[in-house]
Amino acid sequence: MDFYEKWxxxxxxxxxxxxxTGKVITLNQEAQFLLADVTPHEIFELAxxxxxxxxxxxxxxxxxxxxxYEFFSIMVGYExxxxxxxxxxxxxxxxxxxxxLKQLSAxxxxxxxxLAVSTSSISRQNGFTTTLDPTLPDIRIDPEIFxxxxxxxxxxxxxxxxxxxxxxxxxGETLKFEGRRYPIFQLSSKGDLDPSCSIHVLKKLANQLNxxxxxxxxxxxxxxxxxxE
Length: 229
What we know:
The chain is α+β, with helices and mostly antiparallel strands. The protein contains six helices and twelve strands. A hairpin with a 2-residue loop joins strand 11 (212-216) and strand 12.
C-alpha cells in the first residue's frame, strides 16, 4: 500500500468503489463502519442518483444521516461504465463533554431506568416492557442527565402501544476518552415513534454522557461508555 492508498484508507470520510451492478469493489476503513448502519445498495443508489450526467466528478451539498453518522456533502465520480465511486463528507462531531471521572459517583443503572419509567408512566396508558441484561455492574454516570435523557426519549413515542426497553452490553466496540477505552452499554427504546419528534436535544444529552444517540425507524438507541472505576 503506497502513501496515497494509506491516506485514503485512513481518511475520516467514508469512500466506496462499486462495480456497475452495485457490488463493492473496495472501500476504506471508515466506510466499513458506515456499512454497519446502511446497506451497500442504498449507498450505490445514492451514487448513481447524484452522479454527473457525463464522465467526471460531481460534488453535491446535502444533509444525510445513517445511524450515528451525519454528512453534509457527497462527491461521486466515474470515468467509464464499469465502476463508480462515492465519498461522503462527515459533519464535525460535537465535542465530547468528558466529565472528570472523580466527580462521578457509581449508580445502579437498573434503578435509574426504573425511575425514568415510573416518571414517564404517569402520563401513559400503555406502559413499558423491559428486557435488561442483569449482569451490568454499578456504573459511574451523571444520574440526573441519564434519567432526563430517558424521559425525553420516552416522550418521543405516541401512547398507542407499550414502549419496549432493552439494555445490553455491546460487543466488539469501545469508546475512548480521557486516554482510556471503555466497553459500551446500549439502551434502546422501541414503539410508535412520532416522526415529528426532534432528537437534537436527545443528542445533546447523550453527548454529556460521553455517548451518542441514533434514530432508526421506530427505534431510539443510546450508546455510552460503561465506566466502572
